[in-house]
Amino acid sequence: MEIQLQPLFVILLCFGFNQVFTQSLETGPVIVGYGAVWKVENPGFRTATSGEFKVVFDIMDSPESHDSVNKSIETAARFLNMHAQSGVSGEQMKVALVVHNRATRDILSNEAYRAHFGKANPNSELIKELLESGVEVILCGQSAASRNFPVSESINGVQLALSAMTALVQLQDKGYRLIKF
Question: Which of 123, 109, 29 lies closest to 74 in space, CA to CA?
Answer without folding.
Answer: 123
